[in-house]
Design goal:
- By secondary structure, the chain is mainly beta.
- It is 0% helix and 26% strand.
- It is built from no helices and seven strands.
């Protein structure tokens, strides 16, 4: 699978959205791309990594795998951060900004 894109919105570089690996009728399977892509397989493929949004790998005899769940990340100036969230986001600070990371349902009210 193709490699994903590196992003530093959280303050640290993380690669997201890697492509899932393929497979072929001849029995060759491809690896998943960096950023959570699942590996292809001649049997059962590997799912994409949770919270990175990578694609699931293709499987020849055991079926293809699901893609990894995504993530929503908001970065706001700490002076503008209201603290009003629902769900269970991870809230951190990076310099003069507040970073709000959702890996499940939730909201932020500005």
């Amino acid at each position: 699978g193709g490699n994903g894109l590196s992003n530093s919105i959280t303050g640290s570089a993380v690669t997201y959205a890697g492509g899932g690996g393929g497979t072929s009728e001849s029995g060759t399977a491809g690896s998943g791309g960096t950023g959570g892509g699942g590996a292809g397989s001649t049997g059962t493929a590997t799912a994409g990594t949770a919270n990175l949004g990578g694609g699931g790998g293709a499987g020849r005899s055991g079926g293809s795998a699901a893609g990894g769940s995504g993530v929503v990340i908001l970065r706001v100036a700490t002076s503008d951060y209201t603290g009003t969230t629902s769900g269970s986001p991870t809230v951190t600070t990076d310099g003069s900004d507040t970073v709000i990371k959702f890996t499940a349902s939730g909201t932020y009210t500005a």
